Amino acid sequence: MKFALLLFSFSLLVGVAIAEESSVGVGLQVVPTDRGDLVVLGVVEGSPARAAGLQSGDLVVQVDDLPLAGIDFETVARRYLWGKAGTEVTLKYMRPGLAGVHSVTLRRQGLQAPGKEPAGVRMLRPDP
């Protein structure tokens, strides 16, 4: 199965080091598609996403009970990917080369920020 993806000219990092201890993430670096799904660009070392085996190229199509098609990216990041430490979030994703939709439940945790953000990338922060 092939995916035609239209990526915005900038990327947004999700779930990396958050200044507020109460808001933490799962360790995914993603960009939204034109449909609203999220393409995984990278997975933060030592993160729940890395431990669960998520990979660059995975296509996240649902977060908890929320299908991502047509949903605003910042809303998804702030309300669903981030949360309190120790709380869980379930992602449904597709992987190129594997049939079907796969599901994984991740426990949010504090994460180390990557060294330097790539050019054109900005850190998206949770609402205070």
Q: Key terms for this structure?
A:
2 helices, globular, mainly beta, 30% strand, 8-stranded mixed beta sheet, disordered N terminus, 128 residues, Pdz3 Domain
What is the compact description of this entry?
10% of the residues lie in helices and 30% in strands. It is mainly β. The chain is globular, with a radius of gyration of 13 Å.
Explain what the structure shows.
- This protein has 128 residues and is mainly β.
- It has one domain: Pdz3 Domain, CATH 2.30.42.
- The chain contains two helices and eight strands.
- Strands 1, 2, 3, 4, 5, 6, 7 and 8 form an eight-stranded mixed beta sheet that branches.
- The radius of gyration is 13 Å and the shape is globular.
Present the secondary structure layout:
Blueprint: E1 11-14, E2 28-32, E3 38-43, H1 48-51, E4 59-63, E5 66-67, H2 73-81, E6 88-94, E7 102-107, E8 121-123
Parallel strand pairs: 1-8
Antiparallel strand pairs: 1-2, 2-3, 3-4, 4-5, 4-6, 6-7
Mean pLDDT: 77
N-to-C series of helices and strands: EEEHEEHEEE
Helix content class: 10-25%
Distance between the termini: 40 Å
Instruction: Give the name of the CATH superfamily.
Output: PDZ domain
| Biggest beta sheet summary | 8 strands, mixed
Domain module tally: 1
Number of helices: 2
Class based on secondary structure composition and strand pairing? mainly beta
CATH class: Mainly Beta
Uncertain parts:
1-22
Total count of strands: 8
Shape: globular
So, CATH architecture? Roll
Oligomer: single chain
- CATH-assigned fold name: Pdz3 Domain
